[in-house]
Design a protein that fits this description.
Blueprint lengths: L2 H6 L5 E6 L8 E6 H73 L12 H4 L14 H9 L9 E4 L12 E5 L5 E3 L4 E9 L3 E7 L4 E11 L6 E2 L4 E5 L9 E8 L2 E3 L8
Antiparallel strand pairs: 1-2, 3-4, 4-11, 5-10, 6-7, 6-9, 7-8, 8-10, 8-11, 11-12
Length: 268
């Protein structure tokens, strides 16, 4: 019977092992049980198998860890992209809300995006508009031209009052030091640059869309009739000319020749 047949078979319980040295010495003569031989043979085999399993497990773990890092990287990229999209959507909502406000100011609803016409304009705060490629040319022109920026910053000493009679005040008065630069509230053409007893040195700008703005009581002017100005350009310097008791700027906005509260247009 072979060794492997004896080791894993059912016959015989022990094996005699005799080792005779070639050059004398003590002879090794022992009787080994089958269980002992099995342990001697199987332990290295089991150890090798365990080592292989450990190597395979470590390799699998490294692959899973690498895959996890790739997923985390993709997730972070997705989060960043979602954040950028949210920012762009917020800017779009702000722009369309601004267009709605400006369109209502001048009654130019045809210049507004489709999502702001009809009932959707009233529900702007509740429903986000769908994305668009960009603003129409007319919308950009309206944003650039309307008098939406303060001509200067100071203390508002008198507010707009629409009532006719002694309390009527067709604009707002802004108290500042004499010589403070007065800037165009919006882009447009100089319609009037001159003097009268009421406003002293004054400027009227034509912004288009039947909207004009007036700047009165200036010490001196920096523009002439028919000049073109951009929003923020210096058009005069504050003073106390005309019917005035102290340095300030009288600022009016009119649509179709009718005075309206300038703060309805000012956005900052």
């Amino acid at each position: 019977m072979s060794f492997w047949g004896w080791l894993f078979g059912g016959e015989g319980k022990s094996l005699r092992v005799t080792l005779n040295p070639d050059e004398g010495g003590e002879t090794y003569d022992r009787i080994w049980s089958r269980k002992r031989f099995r342990a001697l043979v199987l332990l290295p085999v089991l150890g090798l198998a365990a080592l292989l399993l450990l190597v395979l497990g470590a390799g699998t773990l490294l692959m899973e860890k690498r895959h996890s890092r790739e997923l985390e990287h993709r997730l972070e990229e997705s989060r960043q992209q979602a954040s950028r999209l949210e920012g762009l959507e917020a800017q779009l909502r702000e722009t369309e809300a601004l267009l709605l406000k400006l369109g209502n100011m001048v009654g130019a609803a045809e210049l507004l995006p489709d999502s702001l016409s009809g009932g959707e304009g009233a529900a702007l705060a509740e429903a986000a508009p769908s994305p668009r490629e960009g603003l129409k040319r007319g919308e950009m022109e309206m944003l650039r031209s309307l008098p939406s920026a303060w001509p200067l910053h100071g203390w508002t000493t008198q507010e707009f009052r629409a009532e006719h009679g002694p309390g009527h005040h067709p604009g707002i008065d802004i108290a500042v030091e004499e010589g403070t630069p007065v800037r165009a509230a919006g882009a447009g053409a100089v319609l009037v640059a001159g003097w009268n007893d009421e406003y002293g040195n004054f400027v009227i700008l034509d912004h288009g869309f039947v909207v004009t703005s007036l700047y009165g009581h200036n010490s001196h002017l920096a523009v002439r009739k028919e000049d073109r100005v951009e929003q923020g350009d210096i058009i005069a310097y504050s003073g106390s000319t005309g019917r005035s008791t102290a340095p300030h700027l009288h600022f009016e906005i009119r649509r179709n020749g009718i005075a309206e509260d300038p703060k309805k247009y000012l956005l900052d």
